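job 3f2a | input accepted
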Amino acid sequence: MSEFDVIVLGATGYTGQRVCEYLARRALETGQRWAVAGRRMDTLSPLVERFGAFGAIAADCTQTTGAADLAARGRIIANLAGPYYGRAEPLVGACAAAGTHYLDLTGELIFVRGIIDRFDAIARASGARIAPVAGYEALPFDLMALALLEDYMARYGDSPARIDLLAGAVTPPPGVTGLGEMISGGTAETMRVMLENDFSGLSLDPTALNPADDLDRDAIRRAMPYDMTPRDDDLEPWSTPIFPGPFLHPAVVNRTFALLRREQVPVSTGILYRERMSSSAVTTGAMRAPAAYAMAATASAMGWLANTPLRMPRSLMKNMVDRFAPSPGAGPSLEHLDLWHWTLRGRASGAQGAVEITLDADGHPGYRTTANMIGEAALILADPDSAKPDRAGVLTPALALGTAVLDRFSAAGMRFSRPAVTA
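job 3f2a | predicted structure (423 res):
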């Protein structure tokens, strides 16, 4: 039996401390034991007293021995110690071998592709659920897409033709300015890792995370090309690409669909998954169309930068990230975190009709809500009695958790609702 239900690695960082804040309250309600972990006991011990953790573990998880020791002590490791590429592989491997569940906040496709190839079979054999990309990028999008797929298939008995998600325009509270208040240091670090290391072309492949032997990849690429420009059939006219990572969520959602097909769920390879962001709060009237096209051009340029073999433009972009973006471990003023609000609207549609789901959420999406959702997801995965599906391997957040637990995320400030089915 594991000593702790949840272990928070990277607990001393900005987002790590926000996860501790959540567990300090929520774990008392669920009756689960949790601990903090990191490299140095002198920085961990104050967190035990401050947040009421049940223990502190000093471990260097970039090394095989330290990673194995940590994996042996918890039901699940929530790894907030990014960047992940080149550092977190020993811990993922240790969790996969030990049957310990694992969550992280990575947005690094090159890292996720690597752990799929190295550890998926090992995790399936041990029963471990390895769920990377479990923060705002991409847990709510992945869960919403799965719930829409399930609702449509339950209603109409067939796979939908398309799934659309529209993120509401996220506007800061009054007086809040600066890039450090908008995107997380972890998101900025993902961009750095991509620009320094990833010459693989993964960022422009919507099947980047599908099983390597998936024979449907070409069909999926044809059905779901990366099209950043606004379209007449979008959920909102003149909406923009999702920022800061328009190339991440489709790859995660497509892995969800691909693994469901492996379970003999009849998910069409021709589904168009398309996600957009509302521009209504930042532009009005005649400016919305040019703003949407400008954002589309920016997203396309990001895709080119992420995949060009030319080092000079990648280096210039990395220098801009280093200069203007927040550093890992940094974050906005704490008094602002709870003043944000954001929404996500989803629709699955086909020849027979459509179904919709909405998500209404409190807190800064990249910091407060992300910390809350990964804290709740860790508690769900650590609970042997929670209503999660029987799966193992390197999964997506949606497949690791399942949609039967959607209501539990209300404790994290995320309220899913299913309006009436539309004809």
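job 3f2a | Residues 139-176+200-308+332-365 form one domain.
job 3f2a | closed
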